[in-house]
Amino acid sequence: MKKFLFFLIPFLLFCGNLQAADGFEAVKCGSDIPKALMGKRMKNERVVVLEARHKDIGLKDLGASEISDHMDTISWLICGSEYMLIEADSVVRDVLPFPPHSKSSPAFDGLCEMKGIKMPEEVVGVLEDQPGKDFLPVKQAWKVDEKNAKFVKLPTEGLLCARSGIFSLDGGK
Question: What is the Cα–Cα distance from 93 to 34, expressed in whole angstroms?
Fold first, then answer.
């Protein structure tokens, strides 16, 4: 019987940890949120369940974008600030504290042109709205490096992005 308990107790503890782990369990407001999320495995479950479990950090899903078959960017509101995560194979590979955006400085996710040449990588960032223009100048931008699953800061001079990539709830149109 002792041998059975010797194996059963660690197994039950391990299973309990698996059930609770969803990637956000280490996040605390006021702490280093990117560090707390890096390398965490994210559970594939309904967003409303995940948000309800993490009311303490004000977790809210802000949307996602598929980069490839195994990689996505996902935006979350955590502790009152926005973070964009690169998830590859359900593991958080990089975390970007996303800059504030508004109707006059909308958030963007899509393809851009650098000095008239189309960029092959997905770009995320904040644009400068200019009514009536289809391509807008960029205030801050990062490309998604698919090979290394990282956000890479881009220079903004000469960078223009299509208005159609605006995704923020605060508009920009």
Answer: 10
- 83 located within any domain: yes
Tens-digit pLDDT profile for residues 87-124: 999 999 999 999 999 989 999 999 899 999 999 988 99
CA dist., res. 173 & res. 106, Å (int): 9
Could you tell me if residue 19 is inside a domain? Answer: no
Q: Which two tokens stand for residue 44?
A: 């594939």
- Distance, in Å, from the CA atom of 117 to the CA atom of 168, rounded to the nearest integer, reads 25
Q: Look up the pTM and report it.
A: 0.83
CB atoms within 10 A of CB 57: 20
What value, to the nearest 5°, has the Cα angle with vertex 92 and ends 87 and 93?
85
* Other beta carbons within 10 Å of 163: 18
Does pLDDT of 8 surpass 50? no
- How far is 56 from 163, CA to CA, in rounded Å? 35
d(CA 20, CA 11): 15
Positive or negative, the Cα torsion across 105, 106, 109, 115? negative
CATH of the domain at 120: 2.30.30
Beta bridge partners of 51: none
List Cβ neighbours of 36 (8 Å cut-off, separation of 6 or more). 26, 27, 28
Domain that holds residue 158: 100-173
